[in-house]
Protein: Regulator of competence-specific genes
Organism: Providencia burhodogranariea DSM 19968
Amino acid sequence: MNTHKEFGSMSLTEKNYLHLEQLLGKVGELRKKNYFGGDCLIIDNVIIGLILDDLLYLRGCLFARSYFESIELNRLVFRKKGIPLELRYYFISKQIWKNEELLAHCINLAYRSAVEERNQKQLVVIRIKDLPNMNMSVERALGKIGIHKVEDLREIGAKACFLKLKQYGKHAPSIKLLIGLAGAIEGYHSAVLPSKMKQDLINWYNSVG
């Protein structure tokens, strides 16, 4: 993984954290969730940013992405098996921290873009195959055990779905599929599923044989 120490980073001191929370509080009610080994910043049930290794990244989607790239912000890079994967989180440099008006603008842009993306997605019927880690093959397999909609998958849960697949399938489902189902329900790619959640799934998988 790349953090951006080399790009003139500004680590979040206690004072910085308090200042950031004040700016976020002007946008809406803030809550945090462990994600990707850091703190995911959520306002009005949309993810707007990430604090990782005491550095701030703002989520860039729709028009926020265009703006962040226009001012040449660097994207967060996750390395999986040596292969770099660019995520839609943009590093907030020291220069932006020094400009409170620009920092507030970036935060508001990340929030409004995330809300707009959520609203657009709600207008579209999402199929299971369109969720993270899923594909047509998994969608068909789930359909054979009576799970046809995303809502069904979320209501039943990854472990119960796994047991159904194990009971009715010709071949025992893998731990990779279990982790993929859990990630799909939570909205995570398997590669960035929180380590605590992943370990719980591995322990459970081993216990059910």
User: Anything to note?
Assistant: The radius of gyration is 19 Å. Residues 31 and 42 are 5 Å apart (CA to CA). The longest strand covers residues 83-91.
